[in-house]
Design brief:
The protein is an all-alpha fold. The chain is built from two helices and no strands. The longest helix is centred in the last third of the chain and has 24 residues.
């Protein structure tokens, strides 16, 4: 069974949009791909945060 996809909308400045656009052009990746990779990278940060909060 296919995983259900969700949509997130958020506001960014024109400068931030230009950065994302240029990054996507230079890497040949879609904005969706770039943002998904970023969200997935938060998992590692969460592991560190959880570990540090347990040691308090």
């Amino acid at each position: 069974m296919a995983e259900r996809k969700e949509m997130i909308n958020f506001r960014i400045t024109e400068q931030e949009k230009a950065i994302v656009h240029e990054y996507c052009q230079l890497t040949g990746r879609t904005q969706t791909d770039v943002f998904r990779e970023f969200v997935r990278s938060l998992d590692k940060k969460l592991l560190k945060l959880r570990a540090s909060s347990r040691s308090l």
